[in-house]
Amino acid sequence: MSNQPGPGKSGVSPSEFMRNLRPELYSDSIESPRYELDRGTLEYHLETITSRNQTHAFETFCRKLCERTVCPNLRPATGPEGGGDSKADSETLPLADELADLLFFGEPNAGRERWAFAFSAKKRWTDKARTDVAAAIGTGRGYQKIFFVTSQFTRSKDRAHVEDELTREHGAQVTILDRSWIVEQVIDRDHRDTAVNYLSVGTEVRNGGRLGPSDYSRAQQLEDLERALADPNAFEGMALQRVSEALVAAKLSRSLERPRIETEGRFARAIRLARSEGSQYQQLEAQYESLWTAFWWFDDIALVNREYADFEGRCSRATTRSFWRCSAICCSFSSTPRCTDN
Description:
Layout: H1 14-21, E1 34-36, H2 39-47, H3 55-69, E2 74-76, E3 90-92, H4 97-100, E4 115-120, H5 125-138, E5 145-150, H6 156-170, E6 173-177, H7 179-188, H8 192-198, E7 203-205, H9 213-229, H10 239-255, H11 260-277, H12 280-296, H13 301-316, H14 323-332
Parallel strand pairs: 4-5, 5-6
Antiparallel strand pairs: 1-7, 2-3, 3-4
Helix pairs in contact: 3-8, 5-6, 9-10, 10-11, 10-12, 11-12, 12-13, 12-14
């Protein structure tokens, strides 16, 4: 289902409509810096990494990209050669459960398990993958997952075959991330700044941007909240307050118009905390705000159509004490569920 008006159709997107109706809910900054990089340029740059002797820059770029998309707690490699003496280009730093629960992006268990990462720009990626995985397993550190990131294109059939083969052989789950994955993360998920800053491809465009007064206040508040949420002792004995603050952080990220993956990660954290230590109403409120954001900020009509029925069902099963609050939530969203672009 398309979220934008099709040929011959007129209208505005949900985000445009709400921005005009309630501009105070959105960012008031003017022309913040942006990064320009197209898909073809990035693919060519990745293809010619070795000929330009940028292998070390590529490894740094991969680590920074994985910190954004896989897990934030990565240890940089040390030593004169890639991987240093650890036989892996990077690995996860262990985090206490209290800290792992507060992460708002990345994959589950990234703070509880030991994962290894290998980065390569070599053409013969299958041989390099086998060598790097064997070397990581040979350290005896007990890696549960190993990620191999290659600058090369891989056929889905070949990639799946190598992943299954290495997983069976070494007993650790092996995941191969290729050039298609890199391009998707950088271009489609808008992590262009990593390519500009670490691969020196693309350009950063600055037009004398100005941070708006509301955004300045929001950014300060978000920084203070994240600092408090990162401290597992900050809300000792106040679990409900931590849930509330996590939801406030997500809504601030939304109003600042931070990248979607960052804002959605904060909402996922708020939902996770609400379900583990929050009230029934907090659970419903966090899920509602997440759906509301997907519709009015990211124009994701398909997601609302897919998940609203479950949310409405949870509201209908709410306790009597929460009935009126839950009913108010459903009524406030009544114009958006099961939407179409007709």
